Amino acid sequence: MEIVAWALVLLLGALSAYLALRKEEDPYPDAVRRLVREVLSDDGPGDPAPDDPPEVRDLREAIARALAASHGGGDVPTEQALRALVRYAREAVAMPLREALERGGAEDSLADALAALEDLEAYSETREDEALRRDNLVSVIQSVTREYALQTGVPVKFRSPGGALPVQVASEGFKDALYLLLANAGHFGGGRTVDVVTELEGGEVRVRVLDRGPGFEPEALERAFEPFWSTESDALGLGLTQARKLLSLSGARLAVGNRGDGEGGAEASISLPRSD
């Protein structure tokens, strides 16, 4: 069974256990328990029942997509991966869900579970077939920083040497990777302004993402790209791993470190060839 499938079982198990605490006339427990049984079966989730609530229908669709993405082959989950998935299910799903149910409402918690499933689905996706194309890196970065700032409210300050920066890039994969790096910077920077700086170094363009957080501890710096390793209990520890994988589609390199400008905080640096 793939890592994503293990995670789905854990997440749905948490949903089933806590939704069962609700009153019997509530439609959620039966709908979710039925979905759990289907996920655990060989055939996976089937069609929704006519009386399934919309939120459970959304969960069903997300699970079907994530399971389909996980069936492309791979190794049985390692002990480290399973520990991370159990921790994620407990901290990021089960605990918020229990709190929501104790307040008497499950809609928000189901939305949170759906978001967690969508995150897992996104980590399982690959863009290996995306072709390189010539693009203006400044425009690509601006579109991502605008989207991130609008969605999160975290300010982003973008600085570039001026003019277009032509590159050969797998644009969508690059955008996804940059968004992951911005999300890390915004989170560990406590919501303070994230700086994105582009620089020219010989025939390369360097994109630096700088936050205003505490920076990397020595162990975190050493294990930054290790899958399923994280300093936080409610994180899967796949963000930097996935970002590096996506950037490799553009022939780009990703490095991390601590800022050396006296501001404190961490830095993620992308290097890729400039196209004349």
Describe the structure in brief.
The chain is an alpha+beta fold and 276 residues long. It has 9 helices and 7 strands, in the order αααααβαββαββααββ.
Query: For the CA atoms, what is the radius of gyration?
Result: 21 Å
Helix/strand/pairing category: alpha+beta
What is the global morphology? globular
Q: What quaternary form is this?
A: single chain
Helix content: 40-55%
| Tally of individual domains | 2
Can you count the beta strands? Answer: 7
Q: SSE string, helix = H, strand = E?
A: HHHHHEHEEHEEHHEE
CATH architecture of the largest domain: 2-Layer Sandwich
Task: List the SSEs and their pairings.
Layout: H1 3-19, H2 28-40, H3 54-70, H4 79-102, H5 107-124, E1 133-136, H6 137-152, E2 156-159, E3 166-169, H7 171-188, E4 194-201, E5 204-210, H8 218-222, H9 239-248, E6 253-258, E7 266-273
Parallel strand pairs: 2-4
Antiparallel strand pairs: 1-3, 4-5, 5-7, 6-7
